[in-house]
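Q: What would this chain look like folded?
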Amino acid sequence: MKDVAERGLVLLGCGKMGSALLAGWLEGGLSPKSVWVLDPKPSDWVKGTGVHLNEGVPADPAVALVAVKPQMMGEALPTLQALGNGTTLFVSIAAGTPIAAFEAALGANTPIVRSMPNTPAAVGKGITAIIGNARAGEADMATASTLLSAVGQVVRLEDESQMDAVTGLSGSGPAYVFLLIEAMTTAGIEQGLAPDLALQLARATVAGAGALAEAAPESPAQLRVNVTSPNGTTQAALEVLMDPKTGLPPLVSRAIAAATHRSKELARG
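A: My prediction, written as structure tokens:
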């Protein structure tokens, strides 16, 4: 991060994800004077951080991180076009925008890292997949990983084509878990629990199970076995959830396949 601190970092777009990243960088010790934020409607929080806000950009920043919505890309990206084909590393968190689109706008000699974070980044619990173009060397990949790890885990992909599956699994995945919490809450209410209590139980159960799955040395399958007593309550529920035709596994498989397919469609425009 020394190069970033000395040459500066440009953040194009500072909505929820951009703000989460900025907060992580500042908490990690990056000086606000090393950050230039470009955003037409900055929040009061961003205004109070002390970063350079809508003041233009340095001539040769170490990194330009693009955090605008894909539909805003055509309007926003030209503001950084002068930094293309140089030593500035471009990092994109824009969903559905392939590396080729950035190379077309910035130049083929621009080091570019495409990433796909997810919304738990807002609480430092995200996971982000990254892939670089031919111009992005190991130092560039390490810089991108360091910056994105401010909001959670970072994994590297072997090929950009994997990004659609990442989008279907972890990018869209939080919505699947939120739906599970909704469904568990509704089921609890149907079985006689007060709505507030059902919601509290569902939220804590999903959050706790997720934390256990991440921390425990056992596989998720083994953790499931551990909580399932023969002919007990959990087994009764799992016989419904694990039905090979109507259960959860085939349903989740179809859902993630649909999300992956849609990601491919969006990337083609």
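The mean pLDDT is 95.
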